[in-house]
Amino acid sequence: MEDCTFCRIIKGVAPASTVYFDEKVMAIMDIQPVNSGHVLIIPKIHAAQLSELDEETGAHMFKIAMRIAKALRRSDTKCEGINLFLADGETAGQEIFHAHLHVIPRFRGDGFKITFGPNYSSRPEREELDRIRKKIREAMR
User: Fold this and answer.
1) Which among 120, 133, 98 is positioned nearest to 11, based on CA atoms?
2) Which among 38, 60, 98, 100 is annotated as catalytic?
3) Is 5-116 a domain of CATH 3.30.428.10?
4) In this structure, are residues 84 and 114 in contact, taking their beta carbons and an 8 Å threshold?
5) Catalytic (active site) residue 100
6) Fewer CB within 10 Å: C terminus or N terminus of the chain?
């Protein structure tokens, strides 16, 4: 994908501050970080959505995110906690349509928030949960 920012970075056409790379993924510093040390894990194959990736690559992204998180905690980067965030689709907040996983160092008072919708405090009945579970399990086949 010639117009994909991440594909251009992977090909070496666009600049990036690379933290890690291997045959499956590349980890780069986010140019618009939530906090200092914010890293993106990007698969080297173009996949707009997580579901377009093979399971091995998706799992590898999380494995590398765990290594980056450990390194952030060991470094002198301000980091009292870590969020892993993957926006899958425009409605979920995805802005670059190449699957990627954010590793965001967090600290008290950093101002970053994930807000919940108005129905968050309502708990569905068990029957509703089971009905949805059935649909998901059938779709996994």
Assistant:
1) 98
2) 100
3) yes
4) no
5) yes
6) C
DSSP structure string for 61-129: HHHHHHHHHHHHHHSSS--SEEEEE---SGGGT--SSS--EEEEEE-TT-----PPPTTTT----HHHH
* R_g (Cα) of the chain, nearest Å: 17
pTM for the predicted model, two decimal places:
0.93
Q: Are the beta carbons of 88 and 53 closer than 8 angstroms?
A: no
Task: Pick out the chain residues at pLDDT < 50.
Answer: none
Which residue's entry shows tokens 């990007």? 42
Residue whose C-alpha is closest to residue 24's, from 71, 67, 69, 56: 56
Region of 131 on the Ramachandran plot (φ > 0 left; ψ -120 to 50 alpha; else beta):
alpha
CA 56 to centroid of chain Cα atoms: 16
